[in-house]
TrEMBL record:
Organism the protein comes from: Limoniibacter endophyticus
Entry's Gene Ontology BP terms: riboflavin biosynthetic process
Gene3D superfamilies according to UniProt: Cytidine Deaminase, domain 2, Dihydrofolate Reductase, subunit A
Protein name: Riboflavin biosynthesis protein RibD
Active site: 62
Amino acid sequence: MTRDADELDRRFMAEALAFSRQHDGLTGTNPSVGTVIVRDDGEGPRIIGRGVTAIGGRPHAETQALAEAGEGARGATAYVTLEPCAHHGKTPPCAEKLVEAGIARVVGAAHDPDPRVSGKGYAILRTAGVEVTEGVMAEEASDQLASYLIRSIKKRPEVILKLALSADGMIGRSGAGQIAITGDRARHQVHLDRARCDGILVGIGTALADDPELTVRIPGMESRSPTRIVLDKDGRLPLTSKLVGSVKRAPVLLAVGNTLPAEKRATFTEAGVEILGAEIFEGSIALPELLEDLGQRGFMRVMVEGGAATARHFLDEGLVDRIMLYRGQVVIGEGGVAAPVRADTIPDGFILRRDQTLGPDSYLEWSRKI
Ligand SMILES: NC(=O)c1ccc[n+]([C@@H]2O[C@H](COP(=O)([O-])OP(=O)(O)OC[C@H]3O[C@@H](n4cnc5c(N)ncnc54)[C@H](OP(=O)(O)O)[C@@H]3O)[C@@H](O)[C@H]2O)c1
């Protein structure tokens, strides 16, 4: 393939990836995939169909892009951010739909590890005489589809560790409650990120010290608040906390040990808090098992918002997939709680994905290669 053709493929794949972001966090346990269909009638390539996995997960992106392209799909190229599905449900698989529509070439990005699809989607296409180019912008697509790929491969949700660091590398001051470390733009971005997650998790230390609400507070997006999860083996979360007080707006899941008395469980349940029985290992909630349970409940992406002990446990156990660090101008000084991870102590294997300035603050994001 020539360099120009290669670049053209990357350009259209970038378009499909940008399109796929529209429904990120809204497609249930399905990945938010993007498809663009491109046709060249001699006057240069042009997009004749676009599709993104529908809210809730169906129809798939390919179906929608093909519908928009209509008869124009015959002889055209389809750019798909994930290998097209190969298994029959109530409707035929996307690989067959692409063949039926007369698509001449399929360019794919990420590989699907689901054993019902893996390699089979591309095989259907090739057997039918469709030209297939795999792995275009695969790294970018895999990073974007991380929650789906991690759930498929590791049987647990993607774990995102988010922390706000002061200029002197602290995340808070003991006994001081919540301290504003970053400004409005950074806070707005945090709320947008929360909306893309289905779970937001803190240790009981943070729940007691900060009394956070952990909801999405962007006008019009309040209903996108994820389930708030608290690691609280002895059930110390006060019924008067903001978390319990806002339970009608977003669920609260309290991970407790099995020694928590039935009466205590009942008071939480009556207050609308759901109890999740957790296994205890060396005095702490066993995180791999907890994540497995969350995965089975359909959680795709869980944001760990601290505090220090909780973040440390997730990091030490190699359970963090993505690290988001916001850095503000505030200096905390004496009595500060040291950040469990900083830009200069990111564990091996993480790749820097974003480096942004948000008004007076900065934002850095790393993720592990999947
Ligand atoms: N800047 C930021 O981004 C940010 C974000 C959040 C918090 N903070 C700050 O962090 C500080 C609180 O940190 P922290 O370390 O005291 O609290 P934490 O990590 O929120 O909570 C720690 C507690 O969670 C419970 N827990 C249960 N299972 C656990 C497990 N597997 N791993 C870790 N913890 C487990 C333990 O209590 P039990 O054994 O009693 O269950 C443990 O003592 C506050 O100053 C707060 O302001 C800062």
